[in-house]
Amino acid sequence: MASFAGKLPTLLALFLVEKAEGTDKFGIVKPFPENIYPIERTSAEVTCVAFDLSTESKKKTPERILFMRRNKSGRYTIITETENIYFRNRTEEVVEDGKKSKKLFVTMVIRNVTLNDDSTYGTLGRYECHAFAVGDPVERKHGFYVNVILKTEIPTVTVPEVIVLRHSENITLACNLTEGEDGGNTGLKSISWYKDGVLKKTLRNPEPGNPQGSFEPLKLSNVGVKDGGNYTCLLIVLLRNKEDKKYSVSDSTMVEIAAWLDKQKVDPEYQGYKGRNVSLECPAKGFPLHVEWKFKKKGEDKVRSCIGALDGKYRIHRKGIYEPYFLTLTDLQYSDRGSYYCCLPSNCSDSVQGNCQRFVLRVRDPLGPLWPVIGIIVEAIVLFLIIFIAEKRSKNKKRGTKAISSYRVFSHDVTAAILVSQNNETAAILDKRVEFRSSSSIDSDRGQVRLRKVGETADA
Fold it and tell me: N or C: which end of the chain has fewer CB within 10 A?
């Protein structure tokens, strides 16, 4: 009887606690802390939320949340901040039916997870959140597990290192898969090849016993510039065979296409006009592609290498990583005439032999083709005025006066066609005594008017 009397206070306290817990809705609420599966040497975090879900007018206010660990013997250890563990706290105001209450969020962050942090293998045991309300000594608990996955458990994939190919070659890219030490606890979800983030091929649920044999290599035939890029083998696994615990393992390689020049047999010529722009297209191809532009002024032997870097007159550009390079010259002047070279990288040397494509640039006056015509017209007008004045003066003189000039005046109804053709010399003859002649070339234009003496023929 005495022993029962001694246990009565303890039993009463337990009864009151159970009764309070049956009606009290303060504690750890959703979203509940989930069991996590961090990989060793990575970071992990868990958040616990304390709140009073009761509908009473006076709700309990959360004061603090403690993170604890309990070992197999039931002994608790409070988790405190260390160099490897820290906490984040925040509160949120909740308004219900015009009444305000507070919700407390506490997050535990582990910077570098090790096997000692595991709930099963760690000496401190499983994890629990303990929530405390203001003025209430009773703590509310919620447990969770931290399951540390060792690096050795996870399969790995490897691909060859950087590969340099010549255009038109063939290659086979293999993704070598190595299973983890505990392959039975890690499922294989899929294995895929990506090029620059774009899926090329995939295999879902590869055979666990022979994943390598069920996934064929990626074959590239007759490679060109657009085959160059970053190729990634991506393996998705299920940690501890759980569908909601997907983890990606990958390895990448860069496929490079050696640069080459698709040179033209004859050096291309470009014709620009003063004050305008002109663009030269480089025939170099490859991936990744780098070129150097060089310039040799007309009439000089000195070569300027790596133009365009600082001079605002030049602009080097391309439309995409697989497209050719262009050199654009702005506000052309006659001093821009000469030879331009697009070369494969040579450390900005002045050599233009070998891996270079030459371009010849000619700069003309925009009105160049009109100058011969204008000159002929002006000379014709002047000649007409001279003849007209001479005729007027001759009428006022007596008969027998000698002719003013040894040249005869052409008829007023003379008609002629003036023809101007680039790079070809043409002439128009007026009444077999006045001859107009013009010529035009790439670099210059000229015109000429000639008067024949009386009796002289066009063949003379």
Answer: N
